[in-house]
Automatic annotation (TrEMBL):
PROSITE patterns: HTH_LYSR. SUPFAM superfamilies: Periplasmic binding protein-like II, Winged helix' DNA-binding domain. Belongs to the LysR transcriptional regulatory family. The keyword Transcription regulation applies. It comes from Hydrogenoanaerobacterium saccharovorans. This is LysR family transcriptional regulator. CDD domains: PBP2_LTTR_substrate.
Length: 301
């Protein structure tokens, strides 16, 4: 339904070359160039910087591209909903952070699909800012994230209150302690999430609040994947600072040890975030109820 020139814009932005975009679209190179020129005339802005190398989007081109992606996502969503209305099916695209990926969220969503025949869920894992962007662009229906978004187009429903802990192997000498101090952590090899992760940011902010710095700790490895970090901890190759919810299954089965850190409070919310135009509010309540039920089964309610 949308102007075919918009598809041309998306391909040119992706390929950064008229000829490569033309091949992907089964058009001639002059036709692709003409599409872009027509768009520039209609919008009154220049979309690309043309030179000897790859094409580069202008700042105005970046803005146009962002809205075109949103329009394409909306068109796809409309087509899916019209198709599903006739077949009585529902699809949900739900984004989760890497921390949430290692919590009970995936299990809750799987139970939701089992209890609601005809509903299918696609899970997308990414960092929190990318998930917010996808929500705003209607590329996702929901997202499970740590903390609250300040973006005005997004709303949130709190699933849980979580907190960061120090995670150790059960064979670690400190595993039988009731807590761990920062001085003790300073003596250990740390395997941490990447600096831009919500977990890492929260840890460093808590340190800064009491005049401490991550530079004074022995960070030997930075890993984005929480499952990999937990596997390395089990092998006693280091300790880490993780969300307790990300270790819930291992803690319940006695595979890892989690200790509170003396004088360091790192609580945070886990939220179900959605665009304010999301129409199926009953779905939010159903997922929340299942999440609470799962917490009770894990002994955390």
């Amino acid at each position: 339904m949308l102007d075919p020139k918009l598809d041309t814009l998306l391909l040119v932005a992706e390929k950064r070359n008229f000829t490569r975009a033309a091949q992907a679209l089964s058009l001639t190179q002059p036709a692709v160039s003409h599409h872009i020129s027509q768009l520039e005339q209609e919008l009154g802005v220049r979309l690309f910087v043309r030179g000897n190398g790859d094409l580069m989007l202008t700042p105005e081109g970046e803005t146009v591209l962002r809205y075109v992606r949103r329009m394409k996502a909306l068109e796809k969503k409309m087509a899916e909903e019209l198709q599903e209305a006739g077949r009585r099916l529902t699809r949900l695209r739900i984004g989760i952070t890497h921390t949430a990926e290692s919590s009970i969220v995936a299990e809750v969503l799987a139970r939701y699909t089992n209890e609601n025949p005809g509903i299918s869920i696609t899970i997308v894992t990414d960092n929190i800012n990318n998930l917010y962007d996808m929500l705003e662009n209607f590329e996702l229906d929901l997202a499970v994230v740590e903390g609250r978004s300040t973006r005005p187009e997004l709303s949130a429903l709190m699933l849980d209150t979580d907190y960061l802990v120090c995670v150790l192997a059960n064979t670690h000498p400190l595993s039988h302690s009731s807590m761990i101090t920062l001085d003790e952590i300073r003596q250990e090899k740390l395997i941490l999430r990447l600096p831009n992760s919500e977990t890492r940011v929260r840890f460093e902010s808590a340190l800064a609040a009491i005049g401490e710095s991550i530079a004074d700790f022995q960070v030997i490895l930075e890993v984005d994947n929480v499952a990999t970090i937990k596997d390395l901890i089990r092998k006693n190759l280091g300790i880490s600072i993780l969300a307790r919810s990300a270790c819930m299954d291992e803690l319940r089965k006695g595979k890892l040890t989690a200790l509170p850190i003396e004088n360091l409070s790192m609580t945070r919310e886990t939220n179900l975030v959605y665009h304010r135009d999301f129409a199926h509010k009953e779905t939010l309540q159903d997922i929340l109820a299942l999440y609470k039920k799962q917490l009770r089964e894990y002994g955390r309610a």
